[in-house]
Amino acid sequence: MEELTAAVITLALYLLVGTIIALLSRRVGIKTTSDYYVAGHRLGGILAAISYAATTYSAFMMVGLVGLTYATGVGAFGFEITYLLSTIFLLSYVAPKVWKLAKERNWVSPAEMISDLYGLKPLSLIVAAMYLLALIPYASAQLIAVGRMVEGMAPGLYWLGIVLGVVAALIWTGLSGMWSLASTDLYQGLWMILAAIGFITWLFLWGGPDIASGTVRMAEKGLLGMKWSPLVFVSYSIPWAFFAVTNPQVVQKLYTPKDERALRRLITLFTLFGLSYTVIVTVIGLASRALTEAGRIPAIKVGDQVTPILLSYAPLPLAVFVFTSIVAAAMTTMDAIVLALSSTASRDVYQRFLGGDDRTAINLGRISILILLLLLSYVAYLKIGFIVDLSVLASALLLPLAPVTLIGWFYGRRGKVMGYAAIASLASGFSIGLYWALVHGARKSLVTPIFGLPSTLFILVVSTLIMLIPLARR
Amino acid sequence: MKDKAYLVWSLLVLALSYTVPYLILRECRDLSLYAFWLVLTLIHFAVTLIYLKGGVPWRS
Known about the structure:
The structure holds two protein chains of two kinds.
Chain A: H1 2-24, H2 33-38, H3 45-56, H4 59-72, H5 75-105, H6 110-118, H7 122-153, H8 158-174, H9 178-220, H10 230-241, H11 243-246, H12 248-251, H13 260-293, H14 306-311, H15 316-354, H16 358-382, H17 385-397, H18 401-411, H19 416-440, H20 442-447, H21 455-473
Chain B: H1 2-23, H2 32-53
Helix pairs in contact in B: 1-2
């Protein structure tokens, strides 16, 4: 009963403060779809940076990555850090160009950006369809995580987690678009990092000597070395290495900074947040395994159970604080995906194809947010197992967008042939990924090689080669 | 020129992050592998800060 009360109070406080922040963000005037979806390219550096980080780091970190590190050792840190290394490079090298182009051409949705880069309008609809197919399961998995976290704190109330998640997302995203999203992201990002710091501090105070002795046993089992096979490491890390380029919810964030200084701040603060969060999360995973090796906690078979089991030993306020931070991590990712998908509906379909005005487009965007959230809640309520599996595939299915987007940024607007090559590249890469997932199952398809190459690398090579053929002929 | 140097540097960092764990630190029994990736990231971040703040005319 005490646990339930603490959970309800913390969740209510978290939701109340988030809603007040979202309501305050209404003061910003919204007149155009650019204002609504990319904050009129007027976000400050801190807001843009933490929003970018909170969107990137989902519930996977504190649940999935802790479990992965527990099971496979230091290799899991490498998997996550290659993402960060690659993203630091991509953001520093290409984001300034993207940001400038976005301002000049008034890009609002990433699908619009790709069609504009190749001068081919239908391309935006193809990209939008890819986003929908790949990201609905991913966003649903976030809502499932919200439901499970609430259920973990208040047994039997999974449905309440879904309802609260949808209502909060509707207010936090629908109210003022990117303004309310970024403001609540900043609040939730702080919640995430503070909870992570609290968690790791308690863990070392509680398990200190056992963690040290358990680490020696981990070394004997090879868990401090590289236990991941090259095939698995490459297959898993390649889609994440290009995440900053392929996922619309983060690409859209690159349009938002108000000036070059804000963009630089986005890159540096995101890196600091990402590195700190990754280190904390993986050290928690390694320390948990050390505690098992030292006999302090039982062996945990299911990776996703490591954090909940560990928190069952923690003081109640801390446990509830961390559980709520996982809800926050899931919410920030889901909110950004919903906003990005909604921008495609109102901007790409309504405004660009039907020539609609801004006010109607914004209202249409709000309606599409509601429809998307209802769809996500239905999928999450059904708790279909393969949805979580499909969410693993999201980044792999979006991988063909990497060469198309990168080549578009540097060599775009070079005639329709390049546009048709982009369509062929996207169709081929996406079909291969989907076919391989249907044949081998979502998770296994990632680690089943195609012609001897890691499957994700194969998809990347095929999509890139198709793009290079017309480029080489010019 | 600075852009090219940063591009080469970044590709080198990524290549190291994939190869060193298999070629040198695969069987390590201390926290060398963790430290390697951590230090590599910190160095890459420091170089990136110099690239971003060094008055570089950003790509246009």
